[in-house]
Amino acid sequence: MVQTFAGLALILGLFVGAAWLLRRMNGGKAFMAGKGPMRIVSSLPVGARERIVLLEIEDTWLVVGIAPGQTRTLHTMPKGTVPAETTEDGQFGHWLKQFREQRNESKP
Fold this sequence. Notes:
Elements: H1 2-25, E1 38-45, E2 51-57, E3 60-67, E4 70-78, H2 84-88, H3 92-106
Antiparallel strand pairs: 1-2, 2-3, 3-4
């Protein structure tokens, strides 16, 4: 029985060591985080489980609504339409409100 527990402890220790090594090699980032053509520019919670996310995919920005079990593209625009400093200051919500007001005014 002691031999079984020692083997189990060794296996668990290997898992912990591998996770530590992986984290150390990636600079504390999750595996494959930030790699590839897509990144999250900003995110805004609009409810308890709903949020609006601004995604950058190559030279396009997508405004995406996310709810439990559902993801919808709300708007597509060329990259750089919104100045980058406004999204970093937490002004994404203000920009989104202005965008919605402009969109509602333009509808017949």
